[in-house]
């Protein structure tokens, strides 16, 4: 049995652990925090649970790609999903109008065509392109022999706005189609259209919240790991990846203990991985420079809302609101214009609930705003930080109150997280929401490889492939494919889904 150490117990680390453990590796997952899960973690205040970094997923209906992946990972029967409104899972509020996105590409095109009749043919071309790009990736469609790399290569090099503008004539419709930008922190002239296509396709096929919180996914994965004899060690921070002259020999934990390994998979931000490799010359300076030169997605500011009892009807969709007349450029806010837009969601306790107990408002915040507290740690940032965060929370709530009059009075308590919170809990560079940012100008130079120059050291997690529930799991399959051979892994996934 080969011994594998996985650094980080986020979705990427846990799923990589499951795949390797199912395939005969002796797996140990290391987690620096007291709780496993990374962005899947929840926190509880006054007996009420809040999700921090995973609120809704797509493509999870029987027969769809995430469902198949979750069945292979043996968690499909261990978690409970609650379906969002199929007639409008996402609502975009822009220029004084609301646009509802229904599930299914045809329904989506038809709904928007009913509002923009002159754009019907263009909308059909748009949805056809989304479908072509997402199914061209064999791991996203689980169909072999697709037209694959060529289609994706083209749309990795063309930006979201460029492609939308080439297909759609109406200026308002162009903005509506970009209304889900916060789901991938999309930026004008920078974010590849392929990123947009995968996210749109993922959620459009079917959309769900986790009933009972996203930490149920982490708990389910931990259960599967235990079934295969694998363990998660919490409060175990990897402090060095130890190498000899040619390969990794193991991992140092908390600056003292050494754990031997036959292979190491780092499921943390790649810049953190480079720091763990500071004592080896096996990684070339040019590679280190390339990794540290990749831009990051913008940070996020969240306000977690605890509503008064039976005061807020449960909203079975997500609400994207923009205070300006465009979804573009919200990351370039000024002190006066913040927040230019936000995403508002309710959290699901159990399917069919009439009232929401909790909700979250998520908006952008750049790390530079938090420079005065850059050297502080969780719980020790001082009174001025608390006041700053509270002022911003009040502004965000007041923005929400304009869209949903009276909501502010129905909030019993609220809690706040900033990019510093994510930096310190997950190790994401600069508190970035989704890790590294894809950039059309960088192309493959902006990609994080699953394989490194050290033959038994691999990388996984949201920075390899893509962020999000499906993006990370696909990244896991890519990384594990390096260890187990991709066609073999692919066959396993298809077999359990027959
Ligand atoms: C606010 C927010 C909302 C989101 N909403 C959604 C959503 O609704 N749907 C969706 O699909 N995706 C969503 N995402 C994205 C999704 O949560 C992430 O892409 C995914 O969970 C990342 O998983 P990961 O394993 O790559 O990294 P992480 O979850 O960041 O896990 C990394 C883990 O490594 C640990 N670690 C770091 N350094 C060390 C070390 N040296 N030693 C040991 N452990 C270490 C960290 O503590 C952490 O537990 C959201 C993200 C954010 C931030």
Give the class from helix and strand content and strand pairing.
alpha/beta
Helicity range of the residues?
25-40%
How would you sum up the major sheet?
A: 7 strands, mixed
Bound small molecules, by name, code or SMILES, are:
flavin-adenine dinucleotide
CATH architecture of the domain at 3-37 and 62-77 and 212-295 and 437-496: 3-Layer(bba) Sandwich
What is the rounded distance between the termini?
29 Å
CATH superfamily of the domain at 3-37 and 62-77 and 212-295 and 437-496: FAD/NAD(P)-binding domain
Bin the strand percentage: 15-25%
- Rg over alpha carbons: 22 Å
Unreliable sequence segments: none
DSSP E strands, number? 20
Task: Give the count of helical stretches.
Answer: 16
CATH class membership of the domain at 3-37 and 62-77 and 212-295 and 437-496:
Alpha Beta
Mean pLDDT, as a whole number? 96
Return the CATH topology of the domain at 3-37 and 62-77 and 212-295 and 437-496.
FAD/NAD(P)-binding domain
Quick one: overall form? Answer: globular
Give the neighbour order of strands across the main sheet: 8-7-16-17-18-15-19
